[in-house]
Design brief:
The complex is a heterodimer.
Chain A (H helix, E strand, L loop, with lengths): L7 H31 L1 H13 L1 H33 L14 H4 L1 H29 L9 H8 L3 H28 L11 H25 L1
Helix pairs in contact in A: 1-2, 1-3, 1-7, 1-8, 3-5, 5-7, 7-8
Chain B lengths: L2 E7 L8 E7 L8 H14 L22 E2 L2 E2 L21 E5 L8 E3 L2 E2 L2 H8 L22 H11 L6 H5 L6 H12 L8 H14 L10 H5 L7 H14 L1
Parallel strand pairs in B: 1-5
Antiparallel strand pairs in B: 1-2, 3-4, 3-5, 6-7
Classes of the chains: A mainly alpha, B alpha+beta.
Chain lengths: 219, 246
């Protein structure tokens, strides 16, 4: 990583590219989850496809995991480098006067999202691996909806997910538009995209919260 | 007005500094911040104490010498100004004002509020120029057609006075607004095209070598910049860098 990412601008590009990849993944994830609000069968069909398609399971899924690990690892490396670059801290620093809370605390909102992913893996991904590859149980295309509903009957889990999605929104509120800036896309043509970035950052996490609350309250 | 000042005192670059409290009285609201500092220093000299060292030169917002981090902001709590343009009317009688040097590993403190900003000079030397024959056959500048928009944007970028407020305000101590402005002022003009590739690569390499941090697009630099240098210049530098690297 040190050779390819030796320049600060190359690191910016890498951070932005991995971020945009994850932003796209979120859209795909929420699109499938939304189906669970309207149709048990549609959600089961989509989940069965995602869970059994070899291209998704053995190509896209590893790429996604690498993308997540890369984004977090580079974010942490940058945070350490930046703290070193700062040297002595100010006795009084009024960061709120010139920047948003979200932009100054990406490392913390990112850490909460990392915890969400860990909880999500324990809740869904590890049991899924256990079902398919450890126990080798026969595939049941109708199991996904019930697994989803079952998981979100616990109020503590619902609370943790909802809180983490709020942090996801805060992370995206700065991160999405920041990725475009890093890619060099900040000029008169991109001004109109600012509302789109903010809209995405609020709507996607809000949809995740609605889905979680829907299954908690309706079952 | 009467004020309490909390000022960073540091004997030299090797000493450990600390915040020291001072009182100043009968400060006029019409004074500039540096004039208030002059009053304090006269007071200190008269009492046989060491005056507070601080950078200043033109005192009209052009040279970029005056620094100071005042009440948690570079150049204090006003917009589009340097410290010499900050007036005491921005403060109230009885206020406590915290005054610190610009902080960054790449801006080491020399004494009190004076920091070494030579790192900016070295970045400029790495590519912040165009090579022109000045031996007597100089071409008329107007012979090269330049659009009004490009000329205006280049002029806006060239307004950077290299004061370092961008670095001081950045939580990452990144110098990208400064370097972005210096790259942009040439990237926008035909005269800058010939050395464009080497310029951006060399200036960014020098910036990294000096130990400035990585930009995370907080935008604090743009807000605190006394000359209103836009973040668009950082985006332009990123594009220039990508173009030069491919």
């Amino acid at each position: 990583m040190s050779g390819l990412l030796s320049s600060s601008i190359a690191r910016k590009f890498a951070m932005a590219l991995s971020a945009l990849f994850l932003v796209f993944f979120l859209l795909m994830h929420v699109s499938i989850n939304i189906l669970s609000l309207f149709s048990e069968d549609a959600f089961n069909t989509a989940s069965h496809f995602m869970g059994t398609n070899p291209l998704i399971q053995f190509v896209m899924q590893p790429i996604l995991i690498i993308g997540v690990v890369f984004h977090f690892a580079l974010g942490l490396i940058l945070e350490i480098k930046n703290r070193k670059a700062q040297g002595v801290k100010y006795a009084q620093n009024n960061g709120a006067a010139n920047s948003t809370w979200m932009s100054r605390n990406m490392i913390y909102s990112g850490a909460v999202i990392l915890l969400l992913i860990a909880v999500h893996f324990v809740d869904f991904w590890f049991p899924e691996l256990n079902y398919k590859y450890v126990q080798g149980l026969p595939e049941d295309p109708n199991r996904y909806y019930h697994e989803l509903v079952e998981h979100f009957q616990n109020p503590a889990r619902v609370g943790i997910y909802a809180l983490a999605f709020i942090f996801l929104a805060l992370h995206l509120l700065h991160g999405f538009q920041s990725a475009f800036q890093s890619m060099g896309a900040n000029n008169k043509y991109t001004k109109g995209l600012k509302n789109f970035f903010a809209g995405y950052a609020i709507v996607v996490p809000a949809l995740f919260i609605i889905i979680v609350l829907f299954h908690f309250l309706n079952h | 007005m009467d004020l309490t000042l909390k000022i960073w005192r540091q004997k030299d670059s090797n000493s450990k500094g600390q915040m020291v409290d001072y009182k100043v009285t009968e400060i006029s609201e019409h004074m500039s911040f540096l004039e208030m500092m002059d009053v304090l220093n006269e007071q200190l000299v008269n009492s046989g104490d060491e005056p507070v060292a601080f950078d200043h030169d033109c005192r009209e917002g052009i040279c970029g010498m005056c620094s100071m981090y005042i009440n948690g902001e570079a150049h204090g709590p006003d917009r589009g100004i340097t410290t010499c343009q900050l007036h005491m009317r921005m403060f109230k009688d009885g206020d406590t004002i915290t005054i610190e040097p610009f902080r960054a590993s790449a801006f080491p403190v020399i004494k009190d509020l004076v920091v070494d900003r030579e790192s900016f000079e070295r970045i400029q030397h790495a590519g912040g120029f165009i090579s022109v024959n000045t031996s007597g056959n100089t071409q008329d500048a107007n012979a090269l057609p330049i659009s009004k928009i490009a000329a205006d944007e280049a002029m806006d970028a060239a307004a950077c006075i290299g004061c370092g407020a961008c670095v001081a305000s950045c939580k990452n101590s990144s110098a990208m607004l400064f370097v972005g402005a210096k790259v942009s002022q040439y990237a926008l003009l035909p005269q800058g095209q010939i050395e464009a590739k080497e310029r951006v690569l060399n200036m960014v390499a020098q910036m990294d070598k000096e130990g400035f941090g990585n930009c995370t697009n907080t935008g604090a630099c743009e807000v605190e910049c006394p000359k209103g240098i836009s973040l668009e210049n950082i985006a332009r530098m990123n594009r220039e860098y990508l173009k030069a690297s491919i």
